[in-house]
Amino acid sequence: MEAMELTRWRQRHPQYTYWCGTLLGGCGERLTDRLYESKVCHFAHHPHHTCTRTANGEDSADHLFMRRALRSWMGNRGLKATVRMPGDTPTSGGSIDVDPQGMARRLHFRLRPDLNGSWGPAPGETPAPREEADWIFGLGGAVPGVFWNESGYVFRIRFETKGAERCPYLGVQQRGQATEWTPFSAAVLTPDGLATPAVDKIRAARRRATADDKRRSGIARSPEVPPPPVRELGRDELIVALRDALELDARWATKPTLKHLGQTVGVDFTRYDDADLVDLLTEVDIPFPAHAPVLSALIRTDKGAPLPYLASVIEGIGLGKPSSAPHLKRWAQREADRAFAKYGVPARTMPQELPLNAAVPQRRTRARLSPRRGELQGIHQAAGQGSKRPSTDEWMRLQHLLAEGQQLADGAGGGTAARLTQELRAARRLLEGTRRTQLNSRRLRVLRKTSAELEAAITTARQTAQRNQKAFNDTSHERPAEEPKERDRRQRNTQLDKAKKPAVPAPDELRQQLIAVAQAASTTHWLLLSGGKNTAQDVRLTLLTQIEDRSGSDAPLLSSLVVAPGGGPVPFFREILRDLGLAVPRSDEALQRIWHREQERAHAAYASPPRVMPPRLVPRQASTDPAHEST
User: For FRET with 158, which of 64, 76, 142, 374 sits at 20 to 30 Å CA-CA?
Assistant: First the structure.
């Protein structure tokens, strides 16, 4: 709360008093509001008082939000239930038990482990039989095997911040597969327990397998049903999924292991050797801009230490080598703190970066060099200075190719234009996002590969344009009709190619989903959109650009409703503004204001009834950037 807001609040509610909440583990004593001009205003105890509350984070009241969501959820379905929080204190272990009236099924929520690290029942509590109870666990650690459902899944719960609310999401985690999340309000309670779309699919597969087994054997028995087959992710899909998973882990301030990441993205990393994992994690971290935290530093071994090959990943990114193993551990902890600050909700100011090459005390001595040794040192220095020149030439070559390709893309069309546009975006991301890094051998290979692919796309586009021009000028010859069999074969091949591609949301479908989000005056994330899972970054940019209104009207930007894992706009929001003909701000602060304003405009435009939209902060590209920076 800002100082002006607190002043208005005091004027509107002069008789209000504030107390430390006992349901949050507090002491129950009276609080006072603190007014500050230079920092955030807040509530605080009176001086010389010690409070018993230990949890002060954003998730410290999740058990209260969950209890309120449960009561609303039960009321909307016409059910009555007893909702209680067992334990010595209301917050111990974040435990909530639900006993619906008229049903034998019970629900046990464990939002976090208790002080002893246990997920089990509260002290003195007798658990219900497993077939008559559903256990729902938070994200504070691995779930013991005894709580896994006989069908091979377990329920998870997490919370998303939306305004002043913490909205729960129910997840279904299967062994070796990614967790599928559903808003808790959309879950249903059946005699068999909680049900979501993911649970319905698992139960349907189990029933089909049981029926097939009965037909084959002629006897009724309950076979062990293997989990559904895991779809193998492509290289690009795996990189996107890993990046999203690490950003979400940073959002929840957790340091995952490779096993945990494998369960999240549905990949068994034990099949990868260290060299493959180094290459994979390097590609995960390479596209990030300057001063962004290294997400690979979040990953821990089973003993809680950084990955043993983290130094190779850092070198592959181009950040250099750590001065020592102990300093690498300090650096990894600092990067984890920076990631928690950037992607946390709300985001905080990141701590200062810790240099990799920490100063090691050395004793300096002057030594007289022989003429031969001095000559060799001069040669090595000259070679070192000359080695930087090829990398500079490579950057300039990519810049020239980018300018040439942009001219061809403006007049191109069809599949050639699509490929050229994709290569142009890849080159632009490489130029804008990673030029800060040292150009080691790995980065030089990436740079040369990007230049080669862009040059090939430019050559193809130029040849296509020449053929089209020749066909346009030569009107005396007609193209022979295609044979029916050949045409049918090409259509079948096209359909097969489309079937092999991973499912992505259609632009119209995505637009309707975002309109529904705007009508609810809310925001969303790619992982929560139907079909948005495992979608590559360039496909996301294309989809969000296609759904926008290009008629030149004052329609709000629906793409502003998609929130990055860090809580801000998606990384390519500037490219969306550029593609729509809007001015692109230089500063992140201006971009943040534009993004928030477009959310407000979308909520107003699709409200029921619609409200007057606030004016747009971003002008057309004809306006100058300095004028825009004043917004």
Answer: 76
Residues in the chain: 631
Phi, psi of 174, deg, nearest 5 = -105, 160
Query: Are 121 and 146 contacting, i.e. CB atoms less than 8 angstroms apart?
Result: no
For residue 226, the one-letter residue type is: P
Mapped onto helix, strand or coil, the DSSP state of residue 180 is strand
What is the third-level CATH fold of 391-471? Substrate Binding Domain Of Dnak; Chain:A; Domain 2 (1.20.1270)
CA dihedral sign of residues 472, 478, 484, 489: negative
Q: What is residue 98's three-state secondary structure?
A: strand
Phi, psi of 157 (to 5 degrees): -135, 135
Could you give the angle at the alpha carbon of 361 between the alpha carbons of 357 and 362, nearest 5°? Answer: 105
Helix (H) or strand (E) holding 411: helix 388-411
Bridging pattern class, strands 106-110 and 95-100:
antiparallel
pLDDT digits (tens, 9 = 90+) for 310-363: 999 888 877 778 888 889 999 999 999 999 888 876 677 888 888 887 654 444
**Contact criterion met (CB below 8 Å) for 95 and 109:** yes
Question: Residue 55 class from Cβ within 10 Å (0-12 exposed, 13-18 middle, 19+ buried)?
Answer: middle
| Helix 441-473 × helix 414-433 angle, to 10° | 150
Under 8 Å between Cβ of 524 and 561: yes
Radius of gyration of the chain from Cα atoms?
29
Residue whose entry in the numeric block shows the structure tokens 């029926």: 211
* 87 dihedral zone (left: phi>0; alpha: psi -120 to 50; beta): left
Least Cα distance to 316 among 272, 290, 288, 285 occurs for 285
Give me the residue spans of the domains in the chain: 3-54, 60-217, 235-343, 391-471, 507-629
pTM over 0.85: no
Cβ–Cβ < 8 Å for 606, 519: yes
pLDDT tens sequence across 391-429: 556 777 777 787 787 777 766 556 677 777 778 777 776
